[in-house]
Amino acid sequence: MTNHAILDQTVHQDLRVRVDAGADLGDGVMATLTVPSEFRNIQGHFPILFRREAGQDQFFAVALLGFESGENLFLDGARWDAGYRPLSLAIQPFLVGRPAGGDGPAQVHVDLAHPRIASGDEGVRLFDTAGLATPYLEEIAGKLGDLDLGYRQSAAFFDALAAHELLEPFTLEVTLDDGSVNSLVGFHIINEPKLRALDAAAVGKLHEDGHLMPIFMALASLSQIRPLVDRKNRRRRHG
Fold first, then answer.
1. What's the pLDDT band for 119 if we cut at 50, 70, 90?
2. Is residue 237 in a domain?
3. Angle separating helix axes 200-208 and 212-221, nearest 10 degrees
4. Which is an annotated Pfam family here (predicted)?
5. Strands (DSSP E) along the chain, which ranges?
6. pLDDT on residue 104
7. Number of domains in the chain
8. Contact yes or no for 27/67 (Cβ under 8 A)
9. Interior/surface letters 54-68, b for 16+ CB within 10 angstroms, e for the rest
10. Is residue 32 one of the residues assigned to a domain?
11. Is residue 189 included in any domain, yes or no?
């Protein structure tokens, strides 16, 4: 259940938001949305995989955080155990909205039903006593803008991948130290042999359009699968 509203300095003068980590605060997810412009920051911590919803043609990218539904191996109680927090998690409970017609400037919306909405004196204020945005809200607005721009630019990236048939299905079976098996299905990755086979003109166009770097970042991120498995094994051993 959601309750979205345009953020208003008068109506929401005293609104506070919890900024700690926690499964009950929306962080208990196996994967979270990311965008090509964020891949450089993501790839040093999380595997980047691609998927599409059933019946849909358009792909989107996710940062993989675990191997089972609701599992985030970077959550250690109320501590975020990674050097980077994906934008799609960092901006909660805020989102970008636009006027009903779809035109006009972006607006900051807040989900008033989100578990990060604080009660009493908990959390961080959004506005100071003069009604001005706090440094926290200014930081959130910047992250919202980055994520929104990255999302709107991502269609061209995925069109380029489709044009060169650079995505291939990816299935992973992970055998853990205790003998249990975790399977990842329904994801795609960059097809490296096809990428290597592209001629100079195609590679040049990908570079010119700004798509080559995120492709390389996505490929590099796959080296994070092994550390993610190690996290899973440690979680199993220590509970």
1. confident
2. no
3. 100
4. SapC
5. 4-6, 16-17, 31-34, 48-51, 60-64, 75-76, 79-80, 94-97, 107-111, 124-125, 167-175, 181-190
6. 67
7. 1
8. no
9. eeeeebbbbbbbbbe
10. yes
11. yes
Contact 123, 111 (CB under 8 A): no
Q: Are 109 and 95 spatial neighbours (Cβ–Cβ below 8 Å)? A: yes
Q: Provide the token pair at 171.
A: 């299935």
Domain membership flag for residue 67: yes
- Contact present, 47 and 184 (Cβ < 8 Å): no
Q: Whole-model pTM?
A: 0.93
* Single-letter amino acid code for the residue at 161: L
Residues in the chain: 239
State which residues form the domain around 85: 21-92+142-231
Structure tokens at 113: 């039903």
> Per-residue DSSP letters for 32-78?
EEE-GGGHHHHTTTS-EEEE--TT----EEEEE--SSTT--TTEETT
Taking the C-alpha atoms of residue 26 and residue 30, their distance in angstroms, rounded to an integer, is 11
Tokens of 223: 């080296």
